[in-house]
């Protein structure tokens, strides 16, 4: 590994569900401190991409490398322990466990019990510590899932549609949180909320039917109008 | 001190009541309840915490019972050593089959465990009959020598030992429930993928839970062997395979005291009903149907929240907590 190695380098990734291909030669990279976003219509392959990076799907060909170490073929829990955490789309927390227990589950593998950092991003969670996670609202669940994932200071967060179904005030809060988070962890977001993506992303990849059809690198080029054709 | 007392009070109260019942309740009944509850707690943990239903608990019960029986019949006379051999036999069996079984889905897991119980039944009844004496069983009551300090070769001493063992087992399971491992088990039951995202191996969590649960079951088997001084293949009979599952559901799945309450209810009903009518299993069957239809929570699962509310109201803390939950 060298200092210039990206946190994540995906090269010519081909993924299939049985006979049906979902990703065709996708390449992208994420460097330290960056927020990179993937946009595209439903079925474009965004979630498949994240799940492959997180180790839930095995690529047919291509490579997924993090700081010089290949991820393909590793178990998902090994990838999580390498500091690449996946925050899935469905906002399903462990309903029978309290917020405290959910956070403990996030803390234990890395031994990072610095919950003050989580509360700095999401102060509301402090008051909810003893509440069963099943009683949380959608926004509170998302806070808990992101809060749990950032324990252990991951080098990369894979966040799948974080704002889906959330109130505008929560979305605005998440925007600030993602900006703050990127100082410590790189972020790869899958998102359809173009104003949010355009406000925070350093680079954007547009996916269509499993192909990367566009990459926006210049800040000036990152505008919702430029991305609308891909949604 | 207060914190330690708070942690222990439920266990000490539950088993203190068992000890206090000694002058008015027959000793064999109390011992049977204690052993049966230890037998059931592993099954309850697997079902309530990990989400695995097992119809093969008699296999691990038999491993413990026959481990102890072989030692006391062929090799030695010290019942404590017999118990250690029994528990280690159960641990060995669980460690041998666990790596294969815990990879399975819950429904297949239930059936493969049942198959194991059937295999062990026929091994003990037919294949190894030369050593197990087949259906006649191994009799070794007279081989068991008295032991210093707590003599478990007599029923009174054994009752105290069973009480201490049950307190130890409950303390272990309460510790597991409160620990990060207990949370991992519940999390794996709720959503396997989510636990993996956080860096845990589902397989390792399940395997450890499986080994702990079935080693506890083997302890119950070893205790049966020492208490009765006799073991036969009947202990692993497929006809009794559902017993711990029935007791688990009767008591309240996944609750700490459910197995104790379930064992008490099951053994009590069996004793009382069997004196009145021949087919007591029929009554238990209907009772289970009723419990399922009434909300699946079992006896302790229904009583526990009511008791907690009552206690909370008395300490004046209920109002805020109730609002927070609602």
Description:
- The complex is a heterodimer of chains A (231) and B (326).
- Chain A is an alpha/beta fold and 231 residues long.
- Helix content of chain A is 31%, strand content 26%.
- Chain A contains nine helices and ten strands.
- Chain A has helices spanning 46-53, 76-81, 99-107, 115-121, 124-127, 138-150, 168-181, 194-200, 224-227, and strands at 8-17, 20-30, 35-39, 61-66, 69-70, 84-87, 156-160, 186-190, 203-208, 211-216.
- In chain A, the strands form two sheets. A six-stranded mixed sheet of chain A has the order 6-7-8-3-9-10, sandwiched between helices. Chain A has a four-stranded antiparallel sheet with strand order 2-1-4-5, with helices on one face.
- In chain A, a hairpin with a 2-residue loop joins strand 4 (61-66) and strand 5 (69-70).
- In chain A, helix 3 (99-107) packs parallel to helix 6 (138-150).
- Chain B is an all-alpha fold.
- Chain B is 76% helix and 1% strand.
- A two-stranded antiparallel sheet of chain B has the order 1-2.
- In chain B, helix 3 packs parallel to helix 5.
- Chain B is globular, with a radius of gyration of 20 Å.
- The model of chain B is unreliable at 321-326 (pLDDT under 50).
- Chain A binds chain B through residues 54, 56, 75-77, 80-81, 85-88, 92-97, 101, 104-106, 108-110, 130-132, 135, 148-149, 152, and chain B through 180, 183-184, 186-187, 190-191, 193-202, 324-325.
Please state roughly what percent of the residues of chain B sit in beta strands, choosing from under 5%, 5-15%, 15-25%, 25-35%, 35-45% or over 45%. Answer: under 5%
Measured distance between first and last alpha carbons of chain A: 37 Å
Question: Pairing-aware structural class of the strands and helices of chain B?
Answer: mainly alpha
Q: State mean pLDDT of chain A (0 to 100 scale).
A: 89
Low-confidence runs of chain B (pLDDT<50, min 5 residues)?
321-326
Sheet with the most strands, sense and barrel status of chain B: 2 strands, antiparallel
């Amino acid at each position: 590994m060298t200092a210039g190695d990206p946190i994540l380098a995906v090269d010519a990734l081909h993924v299939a569900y049985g006979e049906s291909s979902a990703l065709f030669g996708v390449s992208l990279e994420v460097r330290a401190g960056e927020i990179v976003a993937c946009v595209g219509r439903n079925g474009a392959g965004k979630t498949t991409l994240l799940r492959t990076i997180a180790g839930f799907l095995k690529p047919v060909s291509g490579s997924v490398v993090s700081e010089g170490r290949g991820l393909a073929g590793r178990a998902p829990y090994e990838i999580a322990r390498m500091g690449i955490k996946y925050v899935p789309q469905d906002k399903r927390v462990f309903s029978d466990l309290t917020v405290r227990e959910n956070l403990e589950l996030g803390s234990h593998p890395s031994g990072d019990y610095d919950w003050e950092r989580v509360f700095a991003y999401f102060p509301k969670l402090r008051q909810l510590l003893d509440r069963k996670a099943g009683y949380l609202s959608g926004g509170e669940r998302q806070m808990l899932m992101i809060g749990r994932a950032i324990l252990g200071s991951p080098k990369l967060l894979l966040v799948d549609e974080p704002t889906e179904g959330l109130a505008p005030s929560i979305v605005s809060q998440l925007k600030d949180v993602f900006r703050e988070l990127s100082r410590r962890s790189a972020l790869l977001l899958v998102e359809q909320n173009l104003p949010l993506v355009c406000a925070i992303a350093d680079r954007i990849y547009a996916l269509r039917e499993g192909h990367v059809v566009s990459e926006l690198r210049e800040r000036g080029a990152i505008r919702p109008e430029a991305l609308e054709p891909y949604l | 001190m207060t914190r330690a007392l708070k942690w222990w009070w439920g266990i000490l109260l539950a088993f203190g009541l068992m000890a206090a019942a000694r002058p008015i309740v027959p000793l064999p009944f109390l011992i049977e309840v204690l052993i049966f509850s230890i037998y059931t707690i592993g099954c309850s943990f697997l079902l309530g915490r990990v989400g695995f239903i097992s119809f093969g608990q008699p296999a691990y019960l038999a491993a413990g019972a026959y481990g102890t029986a072989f030692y006391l019949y062929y090799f030695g006379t010290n019942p404590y050593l017999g118990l250690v051999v029994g528990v280690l036999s159960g641990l060995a069996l669980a460690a041998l089959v666990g790596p294969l079984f815990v990879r399975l889905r819950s429904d297949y897991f239930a059936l493969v465990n049942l198959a194991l119980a059937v295999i062990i039944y026929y091994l003990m009844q037919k294949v190894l009959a030369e050593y197990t004496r087949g259906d006649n069983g191994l009799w070794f009551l007279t081989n068991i020598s008295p032991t210093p300090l707590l003599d478990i070769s007599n029923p009174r001493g054994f009752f105290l030992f069973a009480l201490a063992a049950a307190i130890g087992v409950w303390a272990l399971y309460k510790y597991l429930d409160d620990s990060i491992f207990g949370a991992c088990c519940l999390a794996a039951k709720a959503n396997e993928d989510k636990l993996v995202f956080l860096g845990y191996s589902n397989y390792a969590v399940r395997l450890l839970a499986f080994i702990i649960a079935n080693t506890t079951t083997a302890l119950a088997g070893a205790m049966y062997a020492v208490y009765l001084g006799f073991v036969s293949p009947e202990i692993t009979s497929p006809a009794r395979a559902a017993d711990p599952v029935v007791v688990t559901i009767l008591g309240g799945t996944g609750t700490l005291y459910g197995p104790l309450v379930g064992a008490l209810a099951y053994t009590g009903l069996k004793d009382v009903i069997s004196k009145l009518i021949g087919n007591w299993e029929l009554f238990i069957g209907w009772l289970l149907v009723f419990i399922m239809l009434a909300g699946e929570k079992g006896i302790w699962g229904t009583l526990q929240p009511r008791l907690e509310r009552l206690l909370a109201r008395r300490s004046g803390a209920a109002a805020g907590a109730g609002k927070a939950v609602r």
